What we know:
Structural class: alpha/beta
Oligomer: single chain
Number of strands: 11
Low-confidence stretches: none
Strand content: 15-25%
Distance between the termini: 37 Å
Order of helices and strands: EHEHEHEEEHEEHEHEHHHEH
Shape: globular
Helix content: 25-40%
Strand order of the largest sheet: 2-1-3-10-4-11
Largest sheet: 6 strands, mixed
Amino acid sequence: xxxxxxxxxxxxxxxxxxxxxxxxxxxxxxxxxxxxxxxxxxxxxxxxxxxxxxxxxxxxxxxxxxxxxxxxxxxxxxxxxxxxxxxxxxxxxxxxxxxxxxxxxxxxxxxxxxxxxxxxxxxxxxxxxxxxxxxxxxxxxxxxxxxxxxxxxxxxxxxxxxxxxxxxxxxxxxxxxxxxxxxxxxxxxxxxxxxxxxxxxxxxxxxxxxxxxxxxxxxxxxxxxxxxxxxxxxxxxxxxxxxxxxxxxxxxxxxxxxxxxxxxxx
Length: 266
């Protein structure tokens, strides 16, 4: 039976799941889903291990995270952004990205706790062709965000949510970690994950080349190289845990979390 590793269809996951993506493991392969769908895939058994958003980790007491790998940033990240037609302090309405609970809640923390400005919220699937009325913005994640940062659409301001978080807290922001439901990955599976990451890090240049060949001139090559080599951090540290638990505390007014902290260990 083929076991599936749940992951996102974004560039930032490629070093982590490199060998799974390449089909190098006989009984394992990658299942690509948007962040909003990965928790359900884990609970219903479609995946045995999934790269779950940190918001989804807090929303279910029955799932548990590995404490080794993550997708995170210490400061600017370029792939979790607010695109706005006005200054962030003047926003009246913001469209949330239906693909990502964590990014949406991170923005609410920034907007209401840091900027001190409440806005009206709605959902809208982000597209590069979307236009925005005065004092309106949109949360955008993933590879599409990289396109926006590369192309800098005329008349729009771009705010990096991870950068704002870091300036306010001096802590990393962790977007996702590997989570399991009931069955702990065995030692062989953990070795497969380690081998996949080690090989993926060694293949960063090839991963970047494939990505740029796919998107042609739509994404700036220097931005993509900086993104994978400098922006994204893949290893959890104590500072990451501190940042994760601060997010849990600050976001509790926007969501009813089941977990009181990361893995309920504090």
